[in-house]
Amino acid sequence: MLQVENVKRSFKSGDITVSAVNDVSFTVPDGQFASIIGKSGSGKSTLLSLLGALDKPTSGSITIDGKDIAKMNDHALIGYRCQKIGFVFQSYNLVPNLTALENVMLPMEFAKVGKKERTDRAVKLLEQVGLTEDQMTRKPGKLSGGQQQRVSIARALANKPKLILADEPTGNLDSQTGKMVFDLLHNLAKSEDTTIVTVTHDLSIADKTDRTFQLQDGKLTEVK
Ligand SMILES: Nc1ncnc2c1ncn2[C@@H]1O[C@H](COP(=O)(O)OP(=O)(O)OP(=O)(O)O)[C@@H](O)[C@H]1O
Ligand SMILES: [Mg+2]
């Protein structure tokens, strides 16, 4: 379960303070798929960075799997991000000089999973997302956008995370490929009881998630 309580994140530049996330509270139970919509600059990426422990809130608490990540030290956070959270980005963020298979194996290497096990699991995940054996041996530059995003989903699932965070995961894809990637994320997460929070501009995608929240000037409301 993800529990966010009275979270604020403000940025100071000169005399001005921007409240990018302003007193946000919500809860997402295990296995639920939530979407966050909102205009550009409304605080979506800032909130997602806080949930992923890439940034710390100015105040408030974020509890994932019973632990308040706002209170963890940097060393604990590195392990935490690696073990508990899977990230999917609009721009895929794959390592360009590694093959698809090696990209999926990488987070397991950080988590000190043995070579045989990481190879087997990476192959299984890539098969699940629909990559062929030949495609697995290619570097990201030789795969289509949709295939790269499927690799990044397989990578996000590598360490069996409790929480998957996705920032515009279908933003660079045509609508049909976007729908396929979305369905894939949905099905994989349901089968592993993973909580997903996705930011999207696409209302037809938001409409298909279990819950939808809207951010407006850093304030969050539930719209579905
Ligand atoms: N590091 C920073 N320093 C100062 N201001 C920031 C910083 N990061 C974000 N902001 C400000 O916080 C607000 C929210 O930004 P954020 O990136 O979260 O928006 P967003 O909803 O993700 O927008 P988009 O849809 O364009 O990606 C914006 O006004 C932005 O300028
Ligand atoms: Mg953003």
Folded structure, characterized:
With 224 residues, the protein is of the alpha/beta class. The chain has one domain: Rossmann fold (3-Layer(aba) Sandwich). 37% of the residues lie in helices and 29% in strands. It is built from eight helices and ten strands. The strands form two sheets. Strands 6-7-8-3-9-10 form a six-stranded mixed beta sheet. A four-stranded antiparallel beta sheet has the order 2-1-4-5, with helices on one face. Strand 7, helix 7 and strand 8 form a beta-alpha-beta unit. The chain is globular. Adenosine-5'-triphosphate binds at residues 11, 13, 18, 20, 38, 40-46.
- Give the tally of β-strands: 10
Q: Which ranges are low-confidence, i.e. pLDDT below 50, for 5 or more consecutive residues?
A: none
- Kindly report the spatial arrangement of strands forming the biggest sheet: 6-7-8-3-9-10
CATH topology category name: Rossmann fold
For the record, what CATH class applies? Alpha Beta
Overall residue-averaged pLDDT value: 93
Roughly how much helix do the residues carry, as a percent range?
Answer: 25-40%
Note the beta-strand portion. Answer: 25-35%
Oligomer: single chain
User: Tell me about the biggest sheet?
Assistant: 6 strands, mixed
| Cα radius of gyration in angstroms | 17 Å
Fourth-level CATH superfamily: P-loop containing nucleotide triphosphate hydrolases
Dominant shape: globular
CATH architecture: 3-Layer(aba) Sandwich
Domain count, please report it: 1
Summarize the helix and strand pattern as letters.
EEEHEEHEHHHHEHEHEE
Structural class: alpha/beta
Terminal CA distance reads 19 Å
Bound molecules: adenosine-5'-triphosphate, magnesium ion
Q: What count of helical segments does DSSP give?
A: 8
